[in-house]
């Protein structure tokens, strides 16, 4: 994926072990939210999700287990009816099939990891 001089040589594939973030395009999800799929294998997937201030990651549930770290910004994160304000360096864990969502209080970025991978994100 990257030559020895650090120049990206192509778009990452889901099976590569290295990801060059600049080689991955953002996907506009609407409502001030966009996502980059950084890498995956059948057991896990890593994504970066950027939110404008006030953008909402609507309450939802899925069978995947999820953990996330706040890379930047401030978010109100709701998991199973509990809400906590989190900022850069904080994180959270979502068990399988538990209702959860976020609201961006400030512009920010979340780094999400799912297990198993989110096949629906690749469709």
UniProtKB/TrEMBL annotation:
Q: SUPFAM superfamilies from the xrefs?
A: RmlC-like cupins (SSF51182)
The Cupin type-2 domain, residue ranges: 48-114
Report the InterPro entries cross-referenced here: Bacilysin_H2HPP_isomerase, Cupin_2, KdgF, RmlC-like_jellyroll, RmlC_Cupin_sf
Any idea what this protein is called? Cupin domain-containing protein
This chain's source organism reads Azospirillum oleiclasticum
């Amino acid at each position: 994926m990257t030559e020895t001089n650090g120049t990206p040589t192509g778009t990452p594939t889901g099976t590569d072990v290295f990801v060059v973030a600049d080689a991955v395009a953002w996907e506009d999800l609407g409502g001030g939210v966009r996502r980059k799929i950084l890498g995956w294998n059948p057991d896990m997937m890593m994504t970066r999700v950027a939110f404008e201030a006030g953008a909402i990651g609507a309450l939802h549930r899925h069978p995947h287990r999820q953990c996330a770290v706040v890379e930047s910004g401030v978010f109100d994160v709701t998991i199973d009816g509990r809400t906590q304000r989190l900022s850069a360096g904080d994180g959270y864990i979502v068990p399988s099939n538990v209702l959860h969502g976020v609201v961006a209080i400030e512009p920010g970025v979340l780094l999400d990891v799912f297990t198993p991978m989110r096949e629906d994100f690749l469709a």
